[in-house]
Amino acid sequence: MDTLGALALATEPPNNDLMKRLPVGRKGNFISNVMWRNVLGQSLYQFLIIWYLQTRGKAAFQLSGPDSDLILNTLIFNSFVFCQVFNEISSREMEKVNVFKGILNNYVFVAVISCTVIFQIIIVEFLGTFASTHPLSLQQWIVSIFLGFLGMPVAAALKMIPVGSNIPRGK
């Protein structure tokens, strides 16, 4: 999944803001303060979602019976994957809130995101024993996709937090 996400983000065409930045020297930070803010914020959000599902998921979804652990683990896995999918979309722009601008112009990005979602459906719904998953109900699919989607407003809110940028800017 990380490989597909990296491929999707690596195919983003350069924009004019990128050309205004000065080069980063050998001793410069590879990860900027803006990146740290976004990574730490999304990590905290995803940790809280996964932790909640792990500790309260059975009660929240009224899971019981011999398959309840497998269903819960599948739900956690599905929620995590959709958190990543929506985070990839949010990561198209490090500082701008409108991450959808020009998204359809990048066919590779759209194809990779689409393939990730299609593979996820196949893994969850059809590869049960092989992938240690259990088919989810429509409600469980909607909730796991919604939990992933909530990462987008979280990302937008994070982008409102000012951080001192350690990326030098050109004139």
Automatic annotation (TrEMBL):
The UniProt keywords, alphabetically, are: Magnesium, Membrane, Metal-binding, Transmembrane, Transmembrane helix
Gene Ontology MF terms in the entry: metal ion binding; P-type calcium transporter activity
GO CC term, one of those recorded: plasma membrane
Superkingdom assignment:
Eukaryota
* Domain Cation-transporting P-type ATPase C-terminal per the UniProt entry, residue ranges: 1-161
Task: List the transmembrane segments.
Answer: 107-129, 141-161
Q: What is this protein called?
A: Cation-transporting P-type ATPase C-terminal domain-containing protein
Organism from which the protein derives: Morus notabilis
Highest lineage ranks of the organism? Eukaryota, Viridiplantae, Streptophyta, Embryophyta, Tracheophyta
